[in-house]
Each structure stands twice: as structure tokens, then as C-alpha cells.
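[scheduler] slot 2 assigned
[scheduler] job type: sequence-to-structure, two independent chains
[scheduler] chain ordering preserved from manifest
[runner] begin chain α
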Amino acid sequence: MKNLYETYKAWIMLGVLAIIWGSSFILIKKGLVVFSSEEVAALRIASAGLFMAPMAFNRLRGLQKKDWLWLVVSGFTGSLIPAFLFTTAQTQLSSAITGVLNTTTPLFVLIVGVIVFKQAVVWRQTFGLVLGFLGSFVLILSGSGGLGDVNLYALLVILATLCYGSNLNLIKFRLSGLKPVTITSLSLGVFTLPLLVYLLGFSDLIFHLKNTAGASIALSYILLLGVVGTALALILFNKLVQLSSPIFTSSVTYLIPLVAMGWGFLDGEDLRLIHLLGMAIILSGVYITNRKKTKSQTIATPIEVQKTALDS
């Protein structure tokens, strides 16, 4: 009965996580209706940092000086830089396409692991990488006018997923002695105060809240993105990887773009056949790269690297 209960619990958690992360891109889009891309990104990280501040304060003891260096680097690569890249990209990209490009993260987990940390790779993973990036190039070369209409803003999403892939390897190889909640809360916390100073003293946040119609609604979308889509989602992901297998957890990679495309469709976004083709190619590449290895293989997949990093 316990195993059956845990199975149902894992499926429910997987579905909730897919809905939360898959909805992140439409929340960014709604926030950009009123606020600038910089304001949306800063609000997202600052709200997540404030929410996790109590957890951060409880985990300050026992940290070494070298941990602080890597926590700051982790905050930059895992949260701050991607947040600004995603919001800037979505000023010119639909939320659906951004959601699918986000699935290249496991590919960069493998690439950074191989190049920087000398992880081994097999031909199947190499083929999956090539296929995944081929799909990315299809989307980059498929702007609103169709194939050949280059949209360089898609490269910002690719750069963001490179940051994510680098951060997951960093957590595994440089912060393995810290708990996941410690890494998340402190890496967000180091940027919370500077971002609040920027928002309250140097941005147009207060002006928009006082004078722009719909500002309070847009703010609620961004706060939902920060608290639920960033802080709570990471906690939920940590619990899921502890409860289930890496292969099961990787299923969220394929569910996120489905949720993102669903929101895009409901919001009237224009998805062409060439866009769907690029999405299908990317997801095929991610699947091949992360397909469950046989007993004769000893090389970890990118999703397993993610699981090890976040569960350490």
C-alpha cells in the first residue's frame, strides 16, 4: 500500500510541477504587458528570495568561505542571468516557443559536464545532442514570417539554458556538501537586497503601480512566478527526485512544453507547422539523450546529473 501511495503521490507531484513550470512563460508574458523585462526579472528573483529568506537565515551556520563564492556563482548562473535572458527573449518570442527551447537544459548539462568536468559520453547521447540543437536552429530560423525569418532572441533562451546546465554541474562538483534548500535559498538570497534597491530606487515600478492600468494584476502574475514558479517549484522538484527515479523525474521535461503550448494556444499565440516541427525535433533529441541506459552502460544521463546535483 505504501508503494502504491508513493506512486500516486509521485504522479501528482509530477503533474503539479509540470503545470507550475509550464505556466512560467505565460506569467512572464502577462508581466511584460506593464513592466519592462528588467523589472519582471528583478521582481521574480527578489520575490523568490524574500519568500525563502527564513530558510536562508537558518542555514547560515557552518558555511565555509569557499561555499559563499560558489553560492554567488550558482545564483548568477542558475537564477539571476537566466531570469533576465528569459524576460528579454519573451519581448520578441511567444511563451510556447520559449517553453520548448527551455527543454534544451538537459543537453547543456551533458555538454558542460563533458567539456568542463570531463564526464564520459556515448554516441547515443551525442546523436541526441545534435538532434536537439537541430530543432533549436529550426526555431531560431523560424520567426513570425516562417522559415528563413531569423529570430535571434531565441539565442537568449539557449544562452539561459546553457547557464542552467552550467549551474547544475556546479552544484554537483562544487557544492555537493550542501543541502538543496540551502543552495537554493542562499543563492537567491545574495541578490535579493540589491534587486530590491534597484526596483524601489532606480526602476519605474512605483510609477507603474500608481499610474498604469492593470499594474497590480501584472504584479500578482510576477509574484506568483517568483514564489510558486521559482521557490516552491524548486522545493517540490527536490522532493520528487527523492521520491522517484531520475527517468521518471525527467518526464517533466516533456510535459512542460505541452503546458506552455496549451497556454499559448489559449492566449491566441500563432504557432506554425514549422514551429511544431522544431519542437518535435528538440523533444526527440532530449528523449534520446536521456533514454534509460542498459546494464552494460555506466554513463550517467543529463537528467541523472541533475538528480545527483539537486539531491546532494
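[runner] end chain α
[runner] begin chain β
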Amino acid sequence: MLIGYARVSTQDQNLDLQIEALTKALEILCEGDILVVWKLGCLGCSVKNLVDLVGKLHKQSIHINITVF
């Protein structure tokens, strides 16, 4: 299963629809799944947040696919 993750980086952008969709999607991530992101920086708003999230995903055997075009 591939699940995409997205976020906005400015206060002018609206997260409501993304939060609703991603909350449902991220709740079903399980061992062996692949989380697809456009770039690693999109996973967190700080280095600590990013490290914590990647650590949690690693403990759950969830892989990250960074897709840069």
C-alpha cells in the first residue's frame, strides 16, 4: 500500500481537508507500508519533529519513499 503525506508551510494555506484525509490515511499505516513524500522536509516542521516521526515509523516497520522529480 502506498500512502502520500502532504502539508502546507504558510499560515495562508488551509489544512482542513488535508488533515481530515491524512488523519484517516495515517491511522491505517501498518507494518510493511510505504509512506510516499515529495521531500523529507515535508514530513515535519522541525528537525526534532522529523526525527521523532521517522523513529516512530521505523519502529512500526513503515518505510519512507522520498520522491524528488
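[runner] end chain β
[qc] chain β: Helices lie at 16-27, 47-59.
[scheduler] slot 2 released
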